[in-house]
Design brief:
The complex is a heterodimer of chains A (116) and B (114). Chain A has 116 residues and is mainly β. Helix content of chain A is 3%, strand content 52%. By secondary structure, chain B is mainly beta. Chain B has no helices and eleven strands. The A-B interface holds A 31-33, 35, 37, 42-47, 50, 52, 91, 95-97, 100, 102-104, 106-109 and B 41-45, 48, 58, 88, 90, 92, 97-100, 102-108, 110.
């Protein structure tokens, strides 16, 4: 069955450190999509990235980068030179047609605390 | 500006009362969703709708009801049958119900039962 695991419940780092948030998924589908969302203290979830199962290229957007590895079923998220504004809860999610009937399967989230 | 609005931001309810949470979107999205989030937890799907006048139960639909009479609106009613309704409720929408469509979220409604 489909599943998304974010094993890190909470991570705390000092500003300017690099930090990686792990996401491991399970699905029987060969076509699927993976997502990352950010939930700042205000509560509203913000979409960060979408990646399909056929595109294993790493993605970089400013200080954010994503490493997708099908061999290990992982879609990890790295923040380089972290800033206090990066403090939030980050969710990884999976969408697969057969396993999840087109709905998002959410990880439990990783709370990231960036200390000044 | 296009987006999703939810009202009210904070809602207090006495036990035994039904309450309705509003969700409106002007993104012209076909699909809409309601999630529940408990402190320190992930998101759990309550109901979703892929087209007007049609909706499906999610993982935790018991004690909740919805309607989708207009494309823009997807209100959620928390009934007295919901035993533990205190939570943060998030509404979302997506262009369609396909697996590639990212969901866009509203600011949420925090419901507290007194």
């Amino acid at each position: 069955a489909q599943k998304v695991t974010q094993a890190q419940t909470e991570i705390s780092v000092v500003e300017k450190e690099d930090v990686t948030l792990d996401c491991v998924y399970e699905t029987r589908d060969t076509t699927y999509y993976l997502f990352w969302y950010k939930q700042p203290p205000s509560g509203e979830l913000v979409f960060l990235i979408r990646r399909n199962s056929f595109d294993e290229q790493n993605e970089i957007s400013g200080r954010y980068s994503w490493n997708f590895q099908k061999s290990t079923s992982s879609f990890n998220f790295t923040i380089t030179a972290s800033q206090v504004v990066d403090s939030a809860v980050y969710f990884c999610a999976l969408s697969a047609p057969l396993d999840s009937n087109y709905q998002l399967i959410w990880g439990a989230g990783t709370k990231l605390i960036i200390k000044p | 500006d296009g987006g999703i609005t939810q009202s009210p931001k904070y809602l207090f309810r006495k036990e035994g009362q039904n309450v309705t949470l509003s969700c409106e979107q002007n993104l012209n999205h076909d699909a809409m969703y309601w999630y529940r989030q408990d402190p320190g937890q992930g998101l759990r799907l309550i109901y979703y709708s892929q087209i007007v006048n049609d909706f499906q139960k999610g993982d935790i639909a018991e004690g909740y009801s919805v309607s989708r009479e207009k494309k823009e609106s997807f209100p959620l009613t928390v009934t007295s049958a919901q035993k533990n309704p205190t939570a943060f409720y998030l509404c979302a929408s997506s262009m369609g119900g396909g697996i590639y469509n990212e969901q866009f979220f509203g600011p949420g409604t925090r419901l507290t039962v007194l």
